[in-house]
Amino acid sequence: MTLLSIRDLSIALPLGADRLYAAKNINFDLASGEILCIVGESGSGKSMSANAVMGLLPQGVEPDSGSITFDGQSILDLSENELLKLRGSRISMIFQEPLSALNPLMRVGAQISEVFEAHGALTGAERRARALKLLDEVGIPDPEAAIRAYPFQLSGGQRQRVMIAMALALEPDILIADEPTTALDVTTQAQILALIEDLRKKRGMAVIFITHDFGVVADIADRVIVMKKGEIVEAGRAPDVLLNPQHPYTRALIDAIPRLTKTEPVEEVERAPLLKVEGLQKTFSTGSGTLFGKRRVVKAVQDVSFDLYAGETIGIVGESGSGKSTVGRCLVRLLHPDGGRVLMDGVDIAHMSGAELHAQRRKLQMIFQDPFSSLNPRARVSRILTEGMIAYGMPDKEAKAKARELLELVGLDETAMKRFPHEFSGGQRQRIGIARALALEPAIIIADEAVSALDVSIQAQVLDLLAELKERLHLSMLFITHDLRVAARICDRIIVMQKGQIVEAGPVNKVLHDPDTAYTSSLLEAIPGQDYERSLAAANKG
Amino acid sequence: MIRFILGRLIKAVFILLAILVFNFLLIHAAPGDPAAVMAGEAGAADEKFLADLRANFGLDQPLYVQLWLYIKGAVQLDLGYSFRQQMPVAEMIGDRLPATLLLTGVAFVLSLVLGVAAGVAASARQGRWGDTIISTFALLFYATPLFWVALMATLVFSVWLEWLPGFGYSTIGAGYTGLAHVLDVAKHLVLPASTLGLFFTAIYMRMTRASMLEVSRLDFVKTARAKGLSRGVIQRRHILRNALLPVITLAGLQAGQIFGGAILTETVFAWPGIGRLMFEAINQRDYNVILGVFYISAAMVLLFNLITDVIYVIVDPRIRLTT
């Protein structure tokens, strides 16, 4: 039964935007119990189309023509009050970033009860009981505790479960999920996907799932729509689109999925390690340990040791909270390690300070995850790039010339010098971040989730760039990521971390294809789209 | 929580002592002393008379002895003796405090309530004429010097329109009692309190408006809309609560000044508060009074900083207390 049907929908952008329409001539139907995936890169209009169904377009963005029919009502013709009745009860929505999507000052229980309140359902005590039941249903371990918790006290996966509980409160006909797993690590992603699938089956709910990850699409979609620059370029049943894509753009997106392919084994040569990490320790403690709450001690990094050789890339993988980022931050000394040694050229940099540390620092540079917040929004690119060189005493002019070279090196042209970070796309910003890291001619680059915030196709480009630069500049790299597919693509050796400790380490082909520990196997199993990979491979052979 | 408050209070005592010593030395670094001023006014300024005066007041003692005696007194809330007024300083401040508290307290509540309300109203009408009008008024009040507002208010409402009394705390010689007295004081309060409150009203309004607009763009507001909540509920429960956090910081700053009085406003409106006491004391080099007022205001600033922090923790669960 068709629940929702969109005909010739066009959504106009305000004047002065980079194009006239956020979405143009959108047509699709959604049947009850069906999962429809809308795939596309950032800015393709996929979120806008979904928001239009909720009547939740940003200010200045208006549906311009076409119709949205839900259960016999034309949504575009409804008044605000009529829309209020639909939102949250018949159609509900979950978002990408579960922390920012929850009100930080309200307890989880109150935020769930609010849905009932908004629609005048149930009474006080019933609302609480129902909220508890919902939390239980979405797999929150201790609902009684969670209902009283504030969002910041929950983990990323739990927060997303709370969001889902909220969205399901009134048993909607349609759930719109806008990149709900992009901010989560693989194992949590797999759990959330299983949860959505399960709820769909139990309740016959229709799902519009927005994503840029074809692996996820392959795992859950019944039907797929591929969008590019506001238009639908391909639509069809999932197996058809996935195994037999017609449009070149779809094929490009599918090709861009990072795969767990085996890499050429590198030849082992005798060499001295560039960086030697011995027994690294870092402990965080929160709370005062007094009347007010218990003291919580988190051993973020426990006894981590490894060697990094010249020209080598080591991938540190693990779930969020495994301590992999803390290792990186300890090495560049953004954090002070509590114990252990970090030997670079035979000198221990773990406990250096002042001028000594300053002299060593330039040899280790970092690339950060979020290309939006890791660049000073008020500084032009020229300042971002030259700041470090000038701090190490390079004359202004020379530094500028070097900055221009760097921009060319990372594939940007020198007009970028005069622009501000917000004038660039996510991928371009990450290139600037890479140029900044290279400015001080480091021997080692530490990339902390450097491509996780990027669309798959951009991800592929940035990874290629990193691999190429590494080769050309003889860099060593520490690549911290939660995505094993990305690690497979760029790393020579893999270190798997769990709860602050190294659980497994070895050559990439061994760790990712023949792991020794159950933990690594579980990470591998959680990678989305594996059946699809196999059928793709089979199809290619055949 | 209790431990946090105790820790902060202990720290505050030391800060207060440091302020006391610093103020004391600062005042004594200024040329001239009360004896010279008094002798000058009396017209008979021979050396013997001066020396007698100084001996009487203890001003002939070495500085460190004077300081020690002063601190010893201050700890017991004995703020010394005003040689000019022939009264203990603590008593003088005690006499003036109610009037000041009434003025600054009313101005504080008024500016906070009006400012936040105007800020919410303006943000809800962002870019439309309602917003423009509110913002323009706020800018006007923000930019106009306080004394000028005070003088103009007196001129318009007191001299021309004769609606409100232009100065004083109550009508002298009217002998009102009970409700009539309360009304009389309230009438006298209107002009000074609104003058004093206008500036902060403008600041609260601007801050609330900016903060509301910022919060309204956050993701959780979209979540709230997706739940089907009405605009009013979203504004109140989701946006306002989060938007008030920076306003609380500012309110804490203003609240710290409540006890210091408002020198300018009290002088213009002849309001018998701490501010005017201070003004007169400075003119007369009445050391102990000046120091006493400093001491009380410093203590209040510290106290209100602590209260602000505690309120912050109650309002925002993400903040942990660390001393």
From TrEMBL, chain B:
Keywords: Cell membrane, Membrane, Plasmid, Transmembrane, Transmembrane helix, Transport. CDD domains: TM_PBP2. InterPro entries: BPD_transp_1_N (IPR045621), MetI-like (IPR000515), MetI-like_sf (IPR035906). The chain crosses the membrane at residues 12-30, 101-124, 136-161, 189-207, 243-269, 289-315. Pfam families: BPD_transp_1 (PF00528), BPD_transp_1_N (PF19300). SUPFAM superfamilies: MetI-like. Residues 97-312 form the ABC transmembrane type-1 domain. Coiled coil: none annotated. It is a multi-pass membrane protein. It comes from the Bacteria. It is found in: Cell membrane. GO terms for biological process: transmembrane transport. GO terms for cellular component: plasma membrane. Its main location: membrane. Belongs to the binding-protein-dependent transport system permease family. This is ABC transporter permease.
